[in-house]
Specification:
Layout: H1 3-8, E1 11-13, H2 27-59, H3 71-75, E2 93-97, H4 101-108, E3 114-118, H5 127-141, E4 147-148, E5 154-155, E6 165-169, E7 176-182, E8 185-188, H6 189-207, E9 213-216, H7 222-238, E10 247-252, H8 255-258, H9 261-268, E11 272-277, H10 279-289, H11 309-324, E12 329-334, H12 343-363, E13 367-370, H13 373-386, H14 404-407, H15 418-436, E14 442-444, E15 447-449, H16 451-466, H17 479-496, H18 503-510, H19 523-531
Parallel strand pairs: 2-3, 2-13, 3-6, 9-10, 10-11, 11-12, 12-13
Antiparallel strand pairs: 1-7, 4-5, 7-8, 14-15
Helix pairs in contact: 2-6, 2-7, 5-6, 7-9, 10-16, 12-13, 15-16, 15-17, 15-18, 17-18
Length: about 550
């Protein structure tokens, strides 16, 4: 038996194998995944156990600090991250979205500089979504992704300009891929998503003047960045690619990672392409990590903005850190979508997008995110006017001082209202209902909601019930109150939605998460079994 055949024999594929999947699930690609799994999965599980221990310490009152044992890294002015890779020098506007074929074409046709194809928060990880998404990106890299809807519209890549640089976001370390089992255990979702894309496309991307570039989500420590770097190095060695070809931009979207930003860049050094302000996940993490502490109760989601003390401090520290180390400091998401039915409301929404992007470019960000192509025009206008250079890595903010207390400052003005409670319920229900139908990003109230905003919604509800918050209307937010409002909102959504909707199924899960008692680590792990279709026998390639 050949080495490849021996490695493949260790795998059970418990999802269907469509004809179009065979380009992706080749014996060689499967063998590559097996080697990554066997080499790194034990470390991944150790790091996840470390998260549990860290949470227990926080629950016991030990708040995060800048690590004394890595002070030498922060104090050393001589080291730098990697210089920007081809296609990543100018990243002033990035669009994000899932990997379905239509979205891939629309994103690549947008007037942006990069496109983040998302296997994480914008994708419901059904087997079909993941493997067909890999096939779509394989075709997009080779400019053969055009298709025509049967009896309908043709979708084609534009040819009048260079297409945006492609960046892929794999799933976080906590997620597994239960349809792909190695040596009797599910492979890491991170390794599955990264490995298939890298194996099939890395050399082709370099040949076309780009490279294998990634966004790395939901890390909580520099040790998790070290794991990614080790995977990058071995993966490049395995396909005879020079080390340093891969680039990874880390989303700083957990409160713990904010205390280790320099260490994270240091661990990735030759593979680092900067940090990003993952604003919604960051708010979620802030609530999640300190959910047992009444001093960290936040008001309505609408009151928690980028000018809130803990958010503003984290942005300042991120920009200072990135530019000190010579890498990009990317801004956050504009989640608005055009309001075509109301010109006045749309004008207000777009003005808010303009103000948000103006704040980012003036703060020193090198680029920003949008969720809809229409917003790219606004973001480009702002960054083109105020950042005429490809980036502003030269803009140092050494005078900025951000303390541990600044990062933990939860003094946010505002109150908890019944409208805020109902909005959180609507967003959580709306997103979860779509997710179990296999849809990972959903327009709700003219905002593109993904897993991060749903996580904020359920975490706030849990926190308010747990600490018996009183609303601005004078109502104590009890378990009974939360469940009653949940039932009211579920009934309204059910009545207004098409038959066959899954709001009742979503509500059953949501009801376990808003009573101040049970708290799942992530909504996606809570719901994952609802979207898995595990075959009793391994599929044959």
């Amino acid at each position: 038996m050949s080495d490849t055949a021996s490695l493949v024999s260790a795998v059970e594929i418990l999802g269907s194998i469509e004809e179009s999947y065979k380009t992706i699930l080749t014996p060689e690609a499967i063998a590559f995944l097996v080697l990554l799994h066997r080499t790194f999965n034990t470390t991944r599980k150790t790091l996840l156990a470390r998260r549990v221990a860290r949470q227990a310490a926080i629950d016991a009152g030990i708040l995060p600090t800048f690590l004394p044992e890595t002070k030498f890294i922060r104090d050393d002015p001589t080291w730098q991250g990697a210089p920007p890779a081809p296609g990543l020098v100018d990243r002033r506007v990035e669009i994000t979205g899932p990997t379905d074929r239509k979205m891939v074409i629309n994103a690549l046709n947008s007037d942006v500089w990069t496109y983040m194809a998302d296997f994480e928060d914008a994708t419901s990880p059904t087997w079909e979504n993941l493997v067909s998404g890999q096939a779509n990106l394989y075709d997009a890299v080779r400019r053969q992704v055009d298709f025509t809807v049967p009896g309908g519209k043709a979708y084609k890549l534009r040819t009048d300009r260079l297409l945006p640089t492609l960046i892929v976001r794999p799933r976080g370390w906590h997620l597994e891929e239960k349809h792909f089992v190695v040596d009797g255990e599910p492979i890491s979702g991170s390794i599955f998503d990264f490995g298939l894309y890298f194996f099939h496309n890395a050399h082709e991307l370099v040949k076309r003047g780009s490279g294998p570039y990634f966004y790395l989500p939901k890390m909580e420590s520099h040790f998790e960045a070290r794991l990614w770097n080790d995977i990058f190095k071995l993966s490049q060695d395995m396909i005879a690619m020079p080390r340093g070809t891969i680039r990874g931009t880390v989303l700083i979207e957990t409160i713990l990672a904010a205390f280790e930003m320099e260490e994270i860049i240091y661990e990735l050094r030759e593979h680092s392409s900067g940090l990003n302000c993952g604003r919604w996940d960051y708010i979620f993490s802030f609530i999640k990590k300190f959910r047992h502490n009444p001093a960290f109760v936040l008001p309505d989601r609408s009151a928690v903005t980028m000018t809130s003390p803990f958010m503003e401090s984290y942005v300042k520290l991120l920009i200072k850190t990135c530019h000190k180390r010579g890498v990009h400091a990317m801004g956050g998401m504009a989640a608005q979508i055009p309001i075509k039915s109301d010109a006045a409301a749309n004008k207000v929404a777009m003005e808010n997008v303009y103000k948000d992007k103006l704040r980012e470019v003036n703060a020193g960000h090198d680029g920003t995110w949008v969720a809809h192509p229409a917003l790219a025009v606004i973001a480009s206008e702002v960054f083109n006017k105020h950042m005429p250079t490809p980036n502003q890595l030269f803009k140092r903010t050494e005078e900025v001082v951000v303390t541990e207390a600044d990062l933990l400052n939860s003094n946010v003005q505002g109150s908890v209202t019944e409208d805020g409670i109902r909005m959180n319920l609507d967003i959580g229900l709306g997103y979860m209902e779509a997710w179990v139908r296999g849809v990972g990003c959903v327009p709700i109230n003219y905002l593109m909601e993904d897993a991060a905003t749903a996580e904020v919604s359920r975490s706030q509800l849990w926190q308010w019930v747990r600490h018996q918050v009183t609303t601005a209307e004078g109502i104590k937010v009890s378990k009974e109150y939360a469940l009653r409002i949940l039932e009211e909102e579920t009934s309204k959504l059910e009545k207004s939605a098409p038959k066959g909707n899954k709001f009742r199924q979503a509500a059953q899960h949501f009801s376990t998460q808003i009573t101040g008692e049970d708290y799942a680590d992530f909504l996606t792990t809570l719901l994952y079994d609802d979207i898995t279709k595990i075959n009793s026998k391994s599929a044959k390639l």
